[in-house]
Amino acid sequence: MTDRRDNGGTDDLEAALRGAGLRITRQRRVILAILAGGDDHPDALALFRRAARQDPSISLSTVYRTMKVLEERGAIQRHTFEGGPARFEPADGVHHDHLIDLDSGEVIEFRSERIEKLQDEIARELGYEIVSHRLELYGRRRK
Amino acid sequence: MTDRRDNGGTDDLEAALRGAGLRITRQRRVILAILAGGDDHPDALALFRRAARQDPSISLSTVYRTMKVLEERGAIQRHTFEGGPARFEPADGVHHDHLIDLDSGEVIEFRSERIEKLQDEIARELGYEIVSHRLELYGRRRK
DNA sequence: GTACATGCAAATGATTTGCACAAGA
DNA sequence: TCTTGTGCAAATCATTTGCATGTAC
């Protein structure tokens, strides 16, 4: 047993690349392991720094390029929270929203069936079909 | 009677600047009128182009600087929808969320008391206090 | 007159891209 | 081998800022 999540693990990410006829390079292997291993939402620079510890030859461009292909394959999710740079997380199949801790930058995931449903109702009333949505709560720990 | 909204009109915007001891310059007057007059959500460049028609000497920097002070005074809202640059709208006092038409870029405003309430409940359950939030629906017109 | 505002150009920060070389399949 | 990937530097995009000059109050 491992503490790695069932989905979004290195194997799933590798499969996403392989399935598209893309290559598993030494640097991609490192990046995928970091993505799959962590349970936070790192940005490109954080990913780059962590990767560089294992392989100092990795470049920031490669991190960005890898994020782009993984996103195109639906293997990861890209989030752009207020202010900061894009942050990434392995796609876990189940959609969820985010609560961002304004003090620490920490991201807490949550999911509300009722909110999802209400969103659909609203879109329908306005004559629209939802393609995607984003719901982000920004707050601080209650004392 | 005017088709200008009750709130977020030129007068409100001017008041926001005056109240902070700031000056109403020729270029600010033009920008404020455009913001107050339109009912869309223009980005800095769009604002700049419209302003330049009335006063070709206006610079993009001034648009950005004006957006910054107005935002600091709470007179306008800045939105960063997926992808694109920041877009602005006069603050109308009542909070609302947005549905973005993926084909036209058009922004439709809506408000759901029930969603607002659910968000508060969720944050509370997670031990947080919401400072702000953003809910954006991206979709296309239903045929 | 004096502090605040402006235009311009240069700086910034995040991200992307062109190119010559390297390396998976 | 042949195509895809990489590092590096330069380019791009949105936005900000330094500075000398202009102007609202």
Automatic annotation (TrEMBL), chains A, B:
UniProt-annotated location(s): Cytoplasm
Name of a matching Pfam family: FUR
UniProt keyword list: Cytoplasm, DNA-binding, Iron, Metal-binding, Repressor, Transcription, Transcription regulation, Zinc
Main location: cytoplasm
Tagged with keyword DNA-binding: yes
Transcription recorded as keyword: yes
InterPro entries: FUR, Fur_C, WH-like_DNA-bd_sf, WH_DNA-bd_sf
PANTHER family: FERRIC UPTAKE REGULATION PROTEIN, ZINC UPTAKE REGULATION PROTEIN
Family to which the UniProt record says this protein belongs: Belongs to the Fur family.
Subunit (UniProt): Homodimer.
Protein known as: Ferric uptake regulation protein
UniProt source species: Jiella mangrovi
Native organism taxonomy: Bacteria, Pseudomonadati, Pseudomonadota, Alphaproteobacteria, Hyphomicrobiales
Gene responsible for this protein: fur
